[in-house]
Amino acid sequence: SAVISQKPSRDICQRGTSLTIQCQVDSQVTMMFWYRQQPGQSLTLIATANQGSEATYESGFVIDKFPISRPNLTFSTLTVSNMSPEDSSIYLCSYRGRGDGYTFGSGTRLTVV
Amino acid sequence: AQSVTQPDIHITVSEGASLELRCNYSYGATPYLFWYVQSPGQGLQLLLKYFSGDTLVQGIKGFEAEFKRSQSSFNLRKPSVHWSDAAEYFCAVGVNDMRFGAGTRLTVKP
Q1: pLDDT recorded at residue A87
Q2: Among partner residues A44, A45, A104, which is closest to B44 by beta-carbon distance?
Q3: Averaged pLDDT of chain A
Q4: CB B53 within 8 A of CB B64
Q5: Distance (Å, rounded) from C-alpha A53 to C-alpha A49?
Q6: In chain B, pLDDT over 90 holds for what percent of residues?
């Protein structure tokens, strides 16, 4: 499986600001995914990002709050905009490999104060 | 749409006892099924996966799972639990994307 690098690993941010999370894969992948894991909860899919097209967002998530970029087949970013304490979560990126299932980044632990 | 249900939010077992964590999925065809484990403050670790073929799947750390199409289930089992198995366990179904169950928290009593 290709290696996926996610950064930052953690951050503490002021409310009202934005944070951009980056994911880099060391080979080309078609689809990348972004998840949120709120404290004590499971992982929830935020959106699916294909290169060259707009991301597809799940119910409850909107582009203005979570803009996603996918400029090429190895890279994607998720921005958490106008943050509030309720956005404090772990954010993970993922991709689906050929025959290998899904690979996840190590996650970004975000705390909004 | 695909979805997965984990009926048990929290399970407590004694060390050395057997374990079964339940998972039911909803999908029109044969799905791709996964079990992950997450220890406190740690990332996800893949225990095992089922794509096709033998319905009994062996994973890491002595875990196994059995795919039962008739029951739409993919239950995780371990014959003898160790204290280090205490963690959160997630069942997931992944076809075009991956959807996770709510998770089952496993506590191991000494």
Answers
A1: 98
A2: A104
A3: 94
A4: no
A5: 8
A6: 82
